[in-house]
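Example record

The entry below shows one chain as it appears in the dataset: sequence first, then structure tokens.
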Amino acid sequence: MSRLFLLSTLAFFGAAFLTLPAARAAAAKPANTKPAKADAKPAKAAPAADKPADKTADKAAGKPAEKVAPPPASSSPMAELKKSNEKLDKVLQKNRPNWSPEAELQREEVRKLVGSFLDYGELARRSLARHWDTITAKQREDFVATLRELVERSYLKQVHGNASYNIKYEKETKDGNEANVTGVLNTMARGKKVKIALEYKMLWKGDHWVVYDVVTDEQSMVENYRAEFNKIINRDGFDALMKRMKKKLEEKQE
């Protein structure tokens, strides 16, 4: 049973923790990136959230400023993903009553494991893009912590009660300190077999590979977040974005 795919589902469901119903419907469309280009033309602020600006946004907001030692030639991002997946499977093999102390310990272990291979800081920087440079260090810290909690809760909610899934990893490509790992998610939906294309975007940090984006059938988690965050900040400001995110956390705690 494979649980790592649940990160990929955040590309579909994760961004919905902030959107209004109309925005959710737009974000869920398979070709959401192309319409975004057309919609962005009249407004100059929007392109920061769209694909033409992705490389610029990633360079400004997501790339580490300091030089990082290159990964060993023998390192394999695909192998690390598989290993992380195996660890998650072992933790999640035992079904615990959701209300029990054992279940809380299990959830905490899952949080630690997911946090070891999903780089929340990188996800936060890339999703805020140009806005990252306009906020203070304290605001950045608060944003990363809040985003992490929202992602973790979405992840854990989807983990609980899900049936078996399987990922077939296909290939890995490395370019310096960056890597892509592609695969196919095999699952069942409404009694039918479903195959979903996956792409994990990764960075070499410290002594291991970390995930900073998951693309599911061409839907990028970072791009979805970036489009939504950019829209809210441009309209209402960064403080309004934080207020909305924290309000969502309070709702989930109820």
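Notes for this example: The longest strand covers residues 192-205. The chain has ten helices and five strands.
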